[in-house]
Design goal:
heterodimer; A: globular; B: eight-stranded mixed β-sheet; 23 helices; about 30% helix
Chain lengths: ~300, ~675
């Protein structure tokens, strides 16, 4: 596709042929049951990841119909610092007697929509810029490279603090910054993938068959060959967003009390940790860990499954 | 055979999961002789070579057997002493010279390293010796080349450097693993000649690993044919070529495309080469063998040595023929005939002779700009295609022949407008293809489709076969509705010889030959008149190549397709083409009917090309050695592009590009030698 490449494909092919063994009959991959098609570990990763995603749904549904054990912001001076498994409080209560389980469940809402916003900004921006740079090439590519380098050269935290200082400490403003700073990674990955695919003959074959450029980009490139890449960037981005939201809420820049976020829960509980009341901060800290792990494993597993990467 | 330099006895090499990838291999190599291991991909020939160097990749190990070099047991040597053997006693050259040389070391440093290690020669003495070695392998300006890096050398030169490095240790045995597979025929001829000369001078033995019967015919004294990890036949070269015994060997010969087989079907071996280490009960070739009977599937044949020393692993020869019952008689008959390609009536003449031309190309040019500097100013052009004219009649096959880098693939892509031609006209069944807007082009392109060389890159790995086939029909609205299209997919699969259960599978479940069939079906889906086949068989094994060539011929006979067949393989051209164009450095130097060009070549380049093809009759003939290699299309030589390599160049060749001269009405050549007879 790019000009000036004097074609010399024969050599590569012959070399490759030596290492790719042709098998006898038509393979039976398609007819295998799921658990034989893919590695068990990948399926477990995906199952665990989906469980974490399911908790998001639980949080919104429970919040909407008030199915929570307690109102998460309800102060109860009679039950301050109730230990876990005490009557009525499965995970205990905090220094104001608020139910930790209810606050944990509502804390999911603190990261989810902001995280989704950040991820959608970096994915959509990255896809558009990546396609322009990879498929068009030339001058467009140069300009996009300059832009991504520019964004990359600003420390993310400094940008966030600038935004907080200029506007107000709102989690959505912060997530917009996070989304924009995430664009370069996605754009580069997509552009590289397109450059790699452009050397493959099936794109040329699709052009020869009379497919529209739009169809080739959306179907052959994005849908079939970039979805694994996008999924892994989305899940990793979500993990990063959770970490950022909880860190900032811990520092007091993010979600403000009394609305619960896992970050400000850890912060408010930390004062009582050394007094032996470990649960108000430990429970949200564990929630952060297992959730980020869940999103990362979900991306890993889906990536391996979609790319047919199997351990031999 | 007692005097053997290298003796291998009962070698078994296993994959970690127990699969035998080299199974009970035994052979001897005599000093000064060339022993060829012949086989298709995945038959274990490279693994045999790596076993005797003890360089097997992780997870693969020698399980049993003896390997002795000069009566010394190699397998018992400690690793320290083994390092002395490698390079010192046994040297190896590989298929891909570009990957075998260290890219950040100069040629001189790499040779000096071997010299220091195995000869104890260092510093200026090593430099002098290295220059001597480079001269020995025919590299001009050796003292300068010594300080160059591998990327400054061409493929042929790199392979020469590899040979020089191998010779530096003065080995007793040289293992050459497909030494010329990655090279063009004219360069291949040079390298084979060099290997023969070196062997004559130094008296070393050679283990030649190849899949090419022509190379074996030219080089080997003794041949072993490998199939699925076993040696199935072993004989002196003359005997094997005169009378191959094993059905597989016979088929290999019969599967080679050739002029004499024109209009006949090639004897393709059904099925595919078994994967490395696939377990089998009985004879491993039995599933693909048309002479197999019950015993072949149940019991593995023993190694049988005939009185004249020709050994074979086949039930046909081990005296158990009585078990074959009634079929015996017919089988003997067939064995004696060796490989008879079953001839088929050729209805192709009905489509021949029509003068209606599907494609007419005039003065096609494709220039790639060379840009330099920050402003990316164009400083010159690579003239990949420089004024090509061709014409293809309905139902005819035009072959475009040339070495790598001559621009033949670029022509194919420029015809389809996948690359925008710089100038020229492409007239496809009455419509001009150049200068159209994308929308008009989209519709027109359907009539012209392309089949690519690499079956692994030409199918979208994430799409099922049915989706791949339906896509083109959807885009060009062929067939009324999806049911009609689904029916058409069934028909297409049937046409290219794939089972219906292929429909819902992914490309990675198919072998190379099967993928090539899918690619052909995808092209056929939009009812093209012309197929551009860009080296469709060069990534395939010989036996599978024959299947695809047969398919391509059948489709032409049944559907009246025209082909532009782009290839470097002259044997395939002879077999499949009606007309030939020979390309050199972006221009067509000779064109004519296939008989005219192949039998009565006029251009010195065509003649050199034809003489360089190794023939299986072992008749070396006179190979016209071409000096040097193809120049860069960025700086073509003044005058006739070919004159720097031409032995018959005259003064006028350096001054002016020769005009077309007609040998007869169909045979045209661009050469000053013929410019008299206009």
């Amino acid at each position: 596709m790019t000009a000036g490449r004097v074609q010399e494909p024969e050599r590569e092919i012959i070399f490759m042929k030596k290492y790719i063994q042709t098998s006898g009959e038509i393979g039976d991959f398609s007819t295998l049951p799921v658990w034989q098609k893919y590695a068990i570990a990948d399926l477990v990763y995906v199952a665990y990841g989906l469980l974490i995603v399911a908790l998001v749904v639980v949080s919104y549904v429970a919040g909407m119909f008030a199915w929570l054990p307690y109102d998460p912001q309800q102060i109860n001076m009679d039950a301050m610092m109730a230990p876990p498994l005490s009557e009525g409080y499965l995970l205990g209560s905090d220094f104001m007697g608020r139910d930790i389980l209810s606050r944990l469940i509502m804390g999911i809402q603190a990261y989810f929509l902001p995280g989704l916003l950040a991820v959608s900004i970096s994915l959509s921006g990255g896809v558009v810029l990546g396609i322009l740079s990879g498929y068009r090439g030339g001058r467009v590519e140069t300009i996009i490279t300059y832009f991504t380098n520019l964004v990359d050269s600003f420390p993310r935290l400094v940008l966030i603090l600038l935004v907080v200082a200029a506007f107000k400490p709102d989690i959505y403003y912060i997530m917009v910054v996070m989304g924009i700073t995430g664009i370069p990674t996605v754009a580069t990955a997509i552009a590289n993938k397109i450059r790699f695919l452009a050397q493959k003959n099936f794109i040329e074959a699709a052009i020869a068959l009379g497919l529209r450029t739009r169809v080739i980009i959306v179907k052959h490139i994005l849908w079939y060959n970039c979805r694994a890449l996008l999924i892994i960037h989305a899940t990793i981005g979500m993990g990063e967003a959770i970490l950022l939201e909880t860190s900032l809420s811990y520092l007091g820049f993010g979600v403000q009390e009394p609305v619960s976020s896992w970050g400000n829960m850890v912060q408010s509980g930390a004062n009582y940790f050394l007094q032996g009341n470990f649960w108000p901060s430990t429970a949200p800290a564990l929630a952060i860990m297992f959730t980020i792990l869940g999103f990362n494993l979900l991306g890993d597993g889906l990536n391996n499954i979609l790319e047919d990467r199997r351990e031999k | 055979m007692k005097s053997g330099l290298l003796r291998i006895n009962g070698l078994v090499t296993r994959l970690h999961n127990g699969a035998r990838i080299v199974d009970d291999v035994s052979f001897d190599i005599a000093p000064g002789k060339t022993f060829a291991l012949l086989g298709e991909s995945g038959c274990g020939k490279s693994m045999t070579a790596l076993s005797l160097m003890r360089l097997l990749p992780a997870g693969i190990a020698i399980e049993q057997g003896e390997i002795s070099l000069n009566s010394k047991d190699i397998l018992a040597l400690p690793e320290r002493e083994m390092r002395e053997v490698r390079g010192g006693q046994i040297a190896m050259i590989f298929q891909e010279p570009g990957l075998s040389l260290n890219p950040v070391m100069t040629v001189g440093e790499q040779i000096a390293e071997v010299l220091a290690l195995h000869q104890g020669i260092k510093n200026s003495a090593a430099e002098a010796r290295a220059i001597g070695l480079l001269q020995q392998v025919g590299i001009p300006d050796a003292p300068q080349r010594l300080h160059e890096y591998p990327f400054q050398l061409s493929g042929g030169m790199k392979q020469r450097v590899m040979i020089a490095m191998a010779l530096a240790g003065e080995p007793k045995l040289l293992i050459a693993d497909e030494p010329t597979t990655a090279l063009d025929v004219t360069i291949q001829a040079q390298v084979l000649q060099l290997l023969r000369d070196t062997q004559d001078k130094s008296g070393m033995a050679m283990l030649l690993i190849t899949h090419d019967l022509g190379v074996v015919a030219q080089m080997a004294h003794h041949v072993a044919v490998m199939y699925a990890g076993q040696i199935i036949e072993q004989a002196p070269r003359e005997k094997l070529f005169a009378q191959p015994l094993h059905p597989y060997t016979q088929k290999l010969f019969a599967a080679l495309p050739d002029m004499h087989l024109k209009g006949q079907k090639l004897a393709a071996i059904p099925g595919n080469v078994p994967a490395l280490g696939e377990a089998a009960q009985g004879c491993r070739f039995a599933p693909r063998c048309d002479q197999a009977w019950a015993l072949c599937h149940e019991q593995a044949p023993e190694w049988t040595v005939k009185s004249d020393g020709q050994g074979v692993r086949c039930h046909l020869y081990n005296g158990r023929t009585e078990t074959r019952g009634l079929r015996t008689e017919g089988m003997e008959q067939e064995v004696q005939n060796g490989a008879t390609p079953h001839s088929v009536p050729s209805p192709q003449h009905s489509v021949l002779g029509s003068n209606y031309s599907v494609l007419q190309v005039k003065d096609l040019r494709v220039y790639f700009p060379i840009r330099k500097g920050i402003l990316q100013r164009t400083v010159g052009h690579v003239k990949a295609v420089d004024g090509v004219a061709l014409q293809i009649g309905a139902g005819r096959t035009l072959a475009l022949v040339g070495e790598s880098g001559c621009g033949k693939t670029t022509v194919g892509k420029a015809l389809l407008q996948l690359l925008k031609p710089t100038a020229g006209s492409v007239n496809f069944s009455g419509a001009e293809m150049t200068g159209l807007n994308p929308q008009q082009l989209r519709i027109l392109r359907g009539g012209m489709q392309m089949v690519f060389q690499d079956p692994y890159a030409s199918l979208n790995p994430k799409m099922r076969v049915a989706e791949i086939l339906q896509e083109g029909m959807d885009a060009l609205s062929i067939g009324l509705n999806s049911t009609e299209r689904q029916q058409r997919i069934d028909v297409l699969l049937d046409q290219v010889g794939l089972a219906q259960n292929a429909k819902w599978r992914y490309p990675h479940e198919f072998s190379g030959g099967q993928r090539q069939r899918i690619a052909i079906a995808r092209a056929l889906a939009v009812n093209p008149k012309l197929l551009i086949c860009d080296e469709p068989t060069s990534a395939l094994d010989v036996s599978v190549q024959a299947q695809i060539l047969n398919l391509i011929k059948d489709l032409q006979n049944n559907l009246g397709l025209s082909y532009l067949f782009i290839t470097h393989n002259l044997a395939v051209v002879e077999y499949i083409a009606h007309e030939v164009c020979v390309m050199y450095l972006g221009r067509i130097v000779e064109r004519g009917l296939v008989e005219e060009v192949m039998r009565n070549a006029q251009h010195p380049y065509t003649r050199a090309l034809l003489s360089a093809v190794p023939r299986i009759d072992g008749d070396r003939g006179e190979v016209i050695q071409l000096a040097g290699e193809m120049p860069s299309p960025a700086k073509p030589p003044q005058g006739c592009h070919f004159h720097p390599r031409c032995s018959q160049a005259m003064d006028i060749c350096r001054a002016a590009y020769p005009e077309a001269s007609n040998v007869n009405s169909t045979h045209v050549v661009h050469c000053h030698l013929h410019s008299g007879n206009k």
